[in-house]
Amino acid sequence: MTEKTETPAAASAGEAAKTPPEPADRFVVTQHRVRVGGRDLAYTATTGTLVLREETEKKGEQEGVSEGEKPRASVFFVAYTLRDVADASRRPVTFSFNGGPGSSSVWLHLGALGPRRVVMEDAGKATQPPFRLTDNEFTLLDETDLVFVDPVSTGFSRPVAGEKAKEFHNFKKDIESVGDFIRLWCTRNRRWPSPKLLIGESYGTTRAAGLSGYLQERHGMYLNGIMLVSSVLDFQTLEFLPTNDLPSIVYLPSYTATAWYHGRLAPELQKDLRATLDQAEAFATGEYATALLKGSALGTAAREAIAAKVARFTGLSQDYVERSNLRPEIMRFCKELLRDERRTVGRLDSRFTGVERDAAGAEIATDPSFAPILGPYTATLNDYVRGELQYESDLPYEVLSFKTNEAWRFNEHENKFVEVVETLRAAMAANPHLRVFVANGYFDLATPYFATEHTFHHLGLPDELTANVSMGYYEAGHMMYVHPDSLAKLKRDLAAFVRSALPA
């Protein structure tokens, strides 16, 4: 069954010629079923757009200044709500988005959480088109209703006529617009009494932490839980700069995991991944960190000894490590590790390998772990929205806008690293019931797991709140759900977390 709202018509042809039609909400409702864990779930899918409006002051003819609402953007979403629920207002609801920051929500939507998922091969096996969807036995819909949100300039979300997209392409406005959408959706659907959770991936974790503060402070909306998939809350951990040694330290264990996967470590280090990572982590925060802090004061013999150990844990040659000033940079590592095979490793998922024309280059030109994923997700989303969800639009669905990424601004963080650590800490301090779960891929070189651990070790929570944070680890990359075993484990971990975050 499908229901559609109607866009209000203009008052007259003459009026329509003078001004564009007022932006209106538009959505389609369809009914579906999926089998999960032996249960047959009946659910409603609501697909469409909500218009975000901004309160303004405008001059009136009689009373001088009056309040008004100015349409700013039309935000696209897909919401899945379980049917046959005694009291829907008490059922948990989770708002999901990805990162980029110019990415749509398609990855978590059709990769991990939604009732339908993309059928694709894992690392090393490209899926042959045409691509297709299947029922997702690992959907989180059995635990929580799901709302997938596309921030402005992603998916079908756009600024309204007369508004500029660049106004939404910044750290602060992005958090405000997504937060305002969440408030509006909860208000329209009478879900303020529901337990509310967020789940973000990559830059979406930055957004989620920012939202924890914005929703509390601006709208008085307190969350039950936040799920962070491949987290980055402190950009200092990722920025390889001559004066910033932190990335070299926190990336090293992920280099070790990558070298382990490709069989580039010494035999004694190839036996057990977790045991080897324990050694790499101890070295990274011990001898290696001390050596980097000494800089040029490190003696020649000590430098050679450290270079040898870095080489041992990364699979790189000692000569290359020394020429890299003991600090192999991420994009160079991806090019160097398998250079003798004329192959590169992926940044998003270092299990993936690729081939480039220039085997002598310093850095990878393309990410071999992104190309195999882009095609299947793009094709299936475009077919799914217009087919099963029956939502029609001739706009291109912006799966990932690199133009938006390049235009993104961090005005509030000029002359300092972007971070939302303090925002999350303050939100958890004000709301001691707020729980956080972090999913980490061992082979993620975009947001390495040890960098995330470093961030949370410096969150500054009081002892009584440290138990509110939990983490899961997966033998996959940034999008760990492309790995079948990791997808199954991720579902178990997320389901347990959702249940733990709900009132007793």
What layout of secondary structure does this protein have?
Layout: E1 3-4, H1 13-18, E2 26-36, E3 39-60, E4 64-82, E5 93-97, H2 106-113, E6 116-118, E7 133-135, E8 145-150, E9 158-159, H3 171-188, E10 196-202, H4 203-219, E11 225-231, H5 246-261, H6 273-294, H7 300-314, H8 318-323, H9 330-336, E12 344-345, E13 353-354, H10 371-386, H11 402-407, H12 421-430, E14 435-441, H13 449-457, H14 463-466, E15 469-474, H15 484-501
Parallel strand pairs: 5-8, 5-10, 10-11, 11-14, 14-15
Antiparallel strand pairs: 1-2, 2-3, 3-4, 4-8, 4-9, 6-7, 12-13
Helix pairs in contact: 3-4, 4-12, 5-6, 5-13, 6-7
Explain what you see.
- The protein has two domains: 347 residues, Rossmann fold; 88 residues, no CATH class.
- The two termini are 36 Å apart.
- It has 15 helices and 15 strands.
- Strands 1, 2, 3, 4, 5, 8, 9, 10, 11, 14 and 15 form an eleven-stranded mixed β-sheet that branches.
- A hairpin with a 3-residue loop joins strand 3 and strand 4.
- Helix 3 crosses helix 4, helix 4 packs across helix 12 and helix 5 packs antiparallel against helix 6.
- It is α/β, with parallel strands linked by helices and 504 residues long.
- The chain is globular.
